[in-house]
Q: What sequence folds into this?
């Protein structure tokens, strides 16, 4: 990748960005459309939600295999093969809707291919992007993911009820075919050769994570996804419909506002925020600020006020997420990048699934207000721990005792 002042003047980076955006749009569109189709056919929320849930299983179970694949095969080949394989799997879906086992296995396999792609793209940035552009490159790449989700949601809302299962598969497979063509354009990025890091044990990787000051931001990133992104996944319906008492279209409106907030937050970090001087204290401040903004949501019930406040909450979440993730991306050694990023993605998927489950149960049992107060108390505790950790670090650096 060329070193330019503007990342979007770099043809290879632009291709990678577009590849991620279209792949995400296609995947989200097909999951959203088929989950709606399953619900209309069975009336089961569990069956519909399982389409999303199945995509999280293999990334967690096969984290080491993901690292080996990404370390041993070129990014161009990985993104080409995963796109064409997803295209083929999606084309099979209309023919197996009455075979639940095979139907859900397809979504499980597609989810794993998507996980390989995620690890591949971020590892590619680490190996090819100049260090002074790495943070900005990672932040802007995050926008592609959420633009893709927004586009997939729009496609699902507009087309899923009119084109049927076969039409959905044709549209989705066409998008995957375009992502494959884009992968062919990745001609100048470095190929990844199998490195010794690919065969390291989890204990060795954990040691590398600690030695490179990655452990603290990794924990913060997990908490950010578990609580804030998990809350957002539940709040799209619980906050808009139950708390604000708005009609069903408000769920899509809240998702649209959230997408704009996420893109704005990632772009803000890319332009104004550097992770080079990051420390646990700054991470603690961001987490606490985001939890306070989440608390403010329950103080108003007027949608005209509540929706801008929700924008501020999601904006703060994305700033925290991208800022903390940038710390991991910049500190990870290149020869261990595939291992670290595959484990990171696996942990984030697991924490999101766990967060959605826990938050859903708490909100169902006690209400959204009680959950938000519990989350604020938790992050106050985390803030104290991280601030104390930072005080100790500074104290030892200055040769003092605490």
A:
């Amino acid at each position: 990748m060329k070193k330019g002042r503007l990342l979007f003047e770099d043809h290879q980076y632009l291709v990678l960005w577009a590849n991620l955006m279209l792949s995400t749009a296609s995947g989200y569109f097909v999951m959203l459309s088929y989950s709606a189709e399953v619900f209309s056919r069975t009336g089961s929320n569990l069956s519909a939600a399982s389409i999303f849930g199945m995509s999280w299983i293999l990334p967690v179970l096969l984290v080491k295999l993901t690292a080996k694949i990404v370390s041993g095969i070129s990014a161009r080949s990985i993104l080409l093969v995963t796109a064409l394989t997803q295209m083929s799997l999606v084309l099979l879906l209309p023919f197996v809707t009455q075979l639940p086992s095979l139907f859900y296995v397809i979504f499980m396999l597609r989810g794993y291919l998507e996980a390989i792609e995620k690890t591949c793209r971020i590892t590619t940035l680490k190996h090819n992007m100049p260090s002074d552009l790495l943070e900005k490159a990672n932040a802007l790449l995050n926008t592609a993911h959420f633009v893709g989700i927004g586009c997939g949601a729009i496609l699902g809302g507009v087309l899923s009820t009119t084109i049927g299962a076969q039409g959905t598969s044709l549209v989705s497979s066409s998008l995957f075919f375009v992502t494959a063509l884009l992968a062919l354009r990745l001609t100048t990025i470095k190929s990844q050769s199998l490195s010794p890091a690919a065969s390291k044990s989890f204990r060795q990787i954990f040691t590398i994570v600690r030695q490179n000051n990655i452990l603290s931001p990794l924990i913060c990133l997990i908490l950010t996804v578990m609580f804030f992104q998990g809350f957002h996944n539940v709040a799209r319906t619980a906050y808009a419909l139950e708390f604000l008492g708005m009609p069903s279209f408000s769920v899509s409106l809240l998702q649209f506002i959230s997408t704009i907030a996420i893109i704005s937050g990632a772009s803000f970090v890319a332009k104004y925020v550097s992770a080079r001087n990051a420390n646990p204290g700054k991470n603690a401040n961001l987490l606490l600020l985001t939890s306070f903004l989440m608390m403010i949501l329950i103080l108003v019930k007027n949608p005209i006020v509540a929706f801008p406040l929700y924008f501020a909450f999601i904006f703060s979440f994305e700033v925290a997420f991208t800022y903390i993730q940038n710390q991991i991306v910049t500190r990870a050694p290149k020869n261990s990048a595939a291992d670290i990023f595959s484990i990171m993605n696996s942990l984030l998927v697991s924490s999101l699934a766990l967060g959605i489950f826990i938050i859903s149960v708490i909100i169902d049992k006690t209400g959204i207000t009680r959950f938000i107060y519990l989350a604020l108390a938790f992050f106050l505790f985390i803030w104290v721990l991280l601030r104390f950790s930072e005080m100790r670090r500074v104290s030892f650096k200055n040769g003092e005792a605490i």
About this structure: Residues 131-184 form the longest helix (54 residues). The chain is about 80% helix and 0% strand. The mean pLDDT is 82. The two ends are 46 Å apart (CA to CA).
